Amino acid sequence: MPDYKSQQLLPEGRAVEGIVRWQSPSNIAIVKYWGKHGKQLPRNPSLSFTLQSAVTDTILRYQPKEKKKGISIQFSFEGSPKPAFAQKIEQFFEQNLWAFPFLEQIDIQIDSSNTFPHSAGIASSASSMSALALCLCSLEQELFGTLSDEGAFFQKASYFARLGSGSACRSVYPYAALWGQSPHFPNASDEFAIPVGQALHPVFQGFHDDILIVSKKEKPVSSRVGHQLMEGNPYAASRYQQAGDHTLALFKALENGDVETFGRIAESEALTLHALMMASNPPFVLMQPNSLTLINRIHQFRSDTGLPLYFTLDAGPNLHLLYPGECREEIQSFIRTELTTYCEDGFWIQDQVGPGPKQIRD
Ligand code: PMV
C-alpha cells in the first residue's frame, strides 16, 4: 500500500488563497466490479473505458480560515446549495484528514456542476468523486509541491477517488483503466486503478458509448446494497474467477482490435451482472421491460446488418451502446428511428471514449 500518511501542515501564519479546478469524466465498466470488502476494496478486477462528454466540473476555492477547529466547507451544485452532497463531502474530508491534514487549516468553497442533466438516470459518483480527488491532489501540490511526479499524482487521485466511490478510481486515466489485483497484471492493485489506455488499438480509442435512458428514476436498490449482497451470493466464487478471466481476454481483444471478442465479453458481463442481482438473497431486478426489448432489437440489428453494435448495462435499466466510430451514422440513425421509442421521453445521450480528466487553469 502506498504510504499516504502526511504530516503536512501549513506553518503558523502562512495565509494561502487560490483555486483548483478539474473536469473529470464518468467511465463505463466493460468487466464489472460487483462485490467489495474492507474499505472499498474490489472482489475482482474490472476494466473500463473513460468517457468524454459526461463530465463533472469541480472548482475548489480556498482561503485563510477564520474558525479555529474542524473542517469548514461550503458546497454548491449547479449554483444551489445541496445539503445532502455537502454532508457527503464533509464526511469524505474528515475520513481522509490523515492524508490531507491541512484541510482543517483552510476555508473551502466547492462549486460543482455536471455536463449531463441531473436525475437523468446516469450515476454521477464516478465523475464527481474523481473530480474531487483530483482537486485535493492539486491542492496538496499547490500548497506543498509534494505531487510533482505525474504518475504519483494520478495514483494518489485514483486511491482517494476509490475511497469516495469505488468505480471512480478508474475515471482519472485516459481512454481505459484497470482496477483490482490480477496475476496477469503485476502492477494492478485493489487500492487504485492503473492506466491501460496506451495499450488500446486505435479502433477502441474512437469507440462510442451512447446511453439509452430507459428510466430516469432513482433505482430501487443502491449499488452499495448490491455489492453487499454478493457476500451471500451462491455464485460469487465462480463470478470472481470469471471476471479475472474476462479481464485478461478483454485486455487482449483491446490490444488486438478484436471488436467481436470485445462485444461478446461486454454483453456477457452486462447480463452476468444482472443475473447476479436476480440470484441474490433477497433477489432484485433492475432491468425493465424496455431494457429487454432493446437488447433483442440490438441482437436483431446485428444479425441483419453485420454491424458491430453491442451493449452493456450498469446497475440500472439504461443501455450503453458500444460501437466503433466508423459506424456512427448508420447506428445513430437506427437509434433515432427505432430505439428512442423505448427511452423515457425519447431521451438518449451521445458519448465516446475520451482523453480523461482535464485541469482548468485560469
Ligand atoms: O462504484 P460503485 O460502488 O457505484 O459500483 C459500480 C458498480 C457497477 O457500475 C455496476 C460496475 C462498475 O464496475 O462500474
Q: In a few lines, what is going on in this structure?
A:
This protein has 362 residues and is an alpha+beta fold.
Structural description of this entry:
This protein is an alpha+beta fold and 362 residues long. It has nine helices and 14 strands. It has helices spanning 83-95, 125-144, 150-164, 202-205, 223-229, 236-256, 259-278, 289-305, 328-339; strands spanning 18-31, 36-37, 41-42, 46-64, 72-77, 80-81, 106-114, 176-179, 193-195, 208-212, 310-313, 319-323, 348-349, 358-359. The strands form three sheets. Strands 1, 4, 5, 6, 7, 8, 9 and 14 form an eight-stranded mixed β-sheet that branches. Strands 11-12-10-13 form a four-stranded antiparallel β-sheet. Helix 2 packs across helix 3 and helix 6 (236-256) runs antiparallel to helix 7 (259-278). The protein is globular, with a radius of gyration of 21 Å. The protein starts with 17 loop residues before the first strand and ends with a strand. (3R)-3-hydroxy-3-methyl-5-(phosphonooxy)pentanoic acid is lined by residues 29, 32-34, 46, 125, 165-167, 223, 227, 273, 314-315.
